[in-house]
């Protein structure tokens, strides 16, 4: 088994195209073709994480946070990032990061937070734009059904809870091949009119390569006429944060105690208590102040996230209860999520959960 086998499976739930533009995800250190001896799953990759991987004969670290975020201009070991990268390279250990690719997954970080709080009827808080593409192609009428099925097999035509979705228009196409052509129908140098079907399907952007491979393989024409465009539509099942409901509402103090115990934290910073029942709750792992307005817009009674600054608590405007559980605390279950997922697939392979806490923040 090689590294690509592991990462391809991770990318089935967290395709790298889901990641935000500012992020640095994927294989940060190492080679995809390296044979894997074991996998260590962690939230952060520190020097002690690499030591743990060495001790457990794991040559692949799957990390939530990327150890290399900005550009590295030198590798002199002058800071913890450089030391981690140097130690990993010296010991032939690869490092792979998922970060916002998993943040935007419908079964990712925020989904795990909902599970921990036992929220029901969940949906994405901020659906992501720009990751739905549309393919339009033109095929002889007699070949349309076969090509359409092959595109569906590659993942095209899946929209929300529906699959095999397409739009089809019958018409007449024309073409004329030059002296170097080898037309499937008609003769070179002669104008040909052909009864064709225009097939249109949408798909998630990470499937583009697979879908185009099917298109070129099963389209009968020597030259395939097609268009691929990126849509501005939001994807209802992909995006930042989630929102759900408790089966039974509770008062604010009960809710904050539940949050404190569920996320195993010594401190929950929160906005002013409003004396209201908590039923609908929004969550977002990591630094989530940017989504306060979204949580209010969705009429959430409370919003659980992390890294709220002083003035950002004012954004509650007595309309919502903000609960800051801490960055590490909000994402701590992510590594469990990845271990459970990988273990189900690779049953006879060493998938280890890092036993080290990488939380840099302590309370007194």
From TrEMBL:
GO molecular function: metal ion binding
Record-linked InterPro entries: DUF34/NIF3, DUF34/NIF3_bac, DUF34/NIF3_sf, N-reg_PII/ATP_PRibTrfase_C
Name of one Pfam family that matches: DUF34_NIF3
Keywords: Metal-binding
Ligand binding (a divalent metal cation): 65, 103, 327, 331
GO cellular component, one term: cytoplasm
Family: Belongs to the GTP cyclohydrolase I type 2/NIF3 family.
Oligomer and partners: Homohexamer.
Annotated protein name in UniProt: GTP cyclohydrolase 1 type 2 homolog
């Amino acid at each position: 088994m090689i590294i690509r086998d592991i990462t391809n499976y991770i990318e089935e739930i967290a395709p790298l195209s889901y990641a935000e533009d500012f992020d640095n995800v994927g294989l940060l250190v190492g080679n995809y073709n390296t044979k894997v001896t074991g996998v260590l799953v962690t939230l952060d990759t520190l020097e002690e994480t690499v030591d743990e991987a060495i001790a457990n004969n794991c040559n692949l670290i799957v990390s939530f946070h990327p150890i290399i975020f900005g550009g590295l201009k030198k590798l002199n070991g002058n800071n913890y990032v450089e030391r981690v990268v140097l130690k990993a390279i010296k010991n032939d250990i690869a490092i792979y990061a998922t970060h916002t690719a998993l943040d935007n997954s419908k079964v990712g970080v925020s989904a795990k937070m909902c599970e921990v709080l036992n929220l029901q009827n969940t949906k994405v808080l901020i659906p992501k734009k720009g990751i739905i593409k549309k393919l339009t192609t033109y095929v002889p009428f007699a070949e349309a059904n076969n090509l359409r099925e092959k595109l569906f097999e590659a993942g095209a035509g899946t929209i929300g809870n529906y699959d095999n979705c397409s739009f089809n228009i019958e018409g007449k196409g024309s073409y004329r091949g030059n002296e170097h052509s080898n037309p499937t129908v008609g003769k070179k140098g002669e104008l040909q009119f052909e009864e064709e079907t225009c097939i249109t399907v949408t798909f998630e952007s990470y499937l583009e390569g697979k879908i185009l491979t099917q298109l070129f393989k099963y389209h009968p024409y020597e030259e395939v006429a097609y268009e691929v465009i990126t849509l501005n539509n939001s994807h209802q099942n992909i995006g930042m944060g989630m929102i759900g409901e408790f089966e039974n509402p509770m008062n604010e103090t009960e809710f904050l105690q539940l949050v404190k115990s569920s996320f195993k934290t010594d401190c929950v910073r929160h906005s002013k208590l409003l004396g209201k029942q908590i039923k609908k709750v929004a969550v977002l792992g990591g630094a989530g102040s940017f989504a306060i307005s979204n949580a209010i817009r969705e009429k959430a009674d409370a919003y659980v996230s992390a890294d709220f600054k002083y003035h950002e608590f004012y954004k509650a405007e007595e309309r919502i209860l903000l609960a800051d559980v801490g960055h590490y605390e909000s994402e701590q279950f992510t590594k469990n999520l990845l271990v459970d997922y990988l273990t189900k697939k690779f049953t006879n392979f060493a998938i280890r959960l890092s036993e080290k806490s990488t939380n840099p923040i302590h309370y007194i």
